[in-house]
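Example record

The entry below shows one chain as it appears in the dataset: sequence first, then structure tokens.
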Amino acid sequence: MGTIYDRCLSQAAAVITGKNPDTEQILKSAGVGENAIIRAKGRALHASFYNNEEPFDLPAMVDRAEEWFSHYGFDTETYRALVDWNRAGLESQDPAVGSYGKIAEVKGTYNLIDAIDALAGKATGVSYRALWSATPKRFAHAFHYMSQKDNLRGRSIVLPPVAPWLVPAFIRSCTAVAFLENRFPISFHTPQVPREVIACAMPLILSGEIYEKVYFSSQLVDRVNVLRVPDPQNIFELAQGIEDLLGSSELRQCLSHHSRALSRVLEARAPARDPIVELAEGLVANEHRTAAVA
């Protein structure tokens, strides 16, 4: 596929990237001209991330998910098991640790399942709530793994991806949100999930890798505006961090207060306009195309 990617990139009128020099070098090696590289900074998050307006109707989303899953390519047994599992999860009133986005071992998906299962096994009040984005095969594999954890039955709900404008409501429906990416093979990968969670002023649990990788890492302070778990593969350490957070309203309030303050600074510095929209308008006006071909 590399040959095809290089061919497409080299003929593009414009390629949007950040300011990472490693990324730029990869693009240039693929044949992208200097004039075609557009260095863009991500726009400010939509106001819905920091305006607490829409509630997340969990029972309604579980109902809608059943229809979605029925067309997703699961075998009948997996589909029925998933439907029953989510319905049982609606009974839980325990604090919910949430996660959303792509799932994989390097995303910490299985680490989080193991940690919550360990806590539930010793009668800690905890539940798991997630929006998983994955192929049917990968989704089914992760669900089958989780369904073997008897402690999590009646304590967990797994939904498919939702529309972007529903994500802030999902975040706020959780007691805390975990983003545990670790040992990710792409060094310059910089996910936006941490920024979205702190914009909602929700307690955020971060892996040590992401704690160091996000562009605002110098402004993060463990147990002040985020909770840092150095290595999510250390299940005992991860479970202890979650237990500390759920057991202390003072810690949760501290993270919420200081993450909100940090988010306000980050969003105030971000462009109000979407750079992709501006680029598209420039292409229509032939500005970038002329520069790229020249």
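Notes for this example: The first strand starts at residue 15 and ends at 17. The longest helix spans residues 249-269.
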